[in-house]
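Lab notes, practical 5.
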Amino acid sequence: MNFIPVNEPLLDGNEKKYLAECIDTRWISSEGPFVQRLEEGMAQHVGRKYGIAVCNGSAALDVAVTALGLGPGDEVILPTFTIISCAAAIVRAGATPVVVDCDPLTWNMDIEQVAQKITPRTRAIMVVHIYGLPVDMDPILELAEKHGLKIIEDAAELIGQT
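Output from the prediction step:
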């Protein structure tokens, strides 16, 4: 059986130069010109006014769940096929994860099941784009609008896709 790499780093630009600059200037965490460039570049890339860098995707999910004020008694719908950090962020907030199965063709959440799982306690839908395959957001946004739900979008595997 041959190994099929799921992720290969793309190191064909200025990475070596930037790493050397970080080491030379000692700006290797928390702040510095590269963090600001990342935040501004990402905000521009996704068409938003602001971007905030955090240490990893798990922290980003915690920030999103906390920012929405989700907590005990709240339910958040999310797909079964995702990283544990998605459910963990919901549980850490005291809310209840409600999982839906995935579409076998796209590996993304089954939108019909999302609609079926909405209850009076549902407060949000956590959308997770898998392997660069975008979730069809139009029906998700329609459901959110209809039921007054918030959307948390984990696009860590989608950045750069069209």
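Observations recorded by the TA: The longest helix spans residues 33-45. The chain is about 40% helix and 15% strand.
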